[in-house]
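FW: tagging you since you asked about this chain on Friday. Here's the raw sequence from the shared folder, copied in full. Didn't touch anything.
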Amino acid sequence: EPEIPQNTGNVARTCALTGARLHLVGPMGFKIDDRKLKRAGLDYWHLLDITYYENLEEFFCKNPDNGNFYYFTTKATHRHTDVKYPDNVYLFFGKETKGLPENLLHDNPQTSVRIPMLNNPDARSLNLSNSVAICVYEVLRQWNYPKLLCEGKLRDYEWDV
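HL: got it, structure written out here
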């Protein structure tokens, strides 16, 4: 249930550049054609593999749990780096203001995970799009970055001496 279009645009860009499929579950706090959403995702929208769902019930009906669902939350006891992520994994993130539903976390304690952070009452959690990027790259790191370009190359450059 994303609420902030810029976060969703940033998540979309991460998905486009990593080959991750994006599942957007409603209700959303904006229209999918929102100008801020498009701006945050820049010109990567055509690179996305994206599916929309009206709500969690529709998502679960169309994507049965094969033990590959991981729920990211500040309320979990397992660290995101301690999990060995299987193929075809789904990474769940909650809405910016409330996170994931408590009943979902309660029913899935073994697959609820957290990103370690300071215990500061004035700072609830990391930004949603930053959390997604951290966790997507942890999964890809464990899988040895399949299909990703893992080295760059400098442009040819003539040095003035």
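FW: The longest strand covers residues 22-25.
HL: agreed, and The radius of gyration is 17 Å.
FW: great, closing this out.
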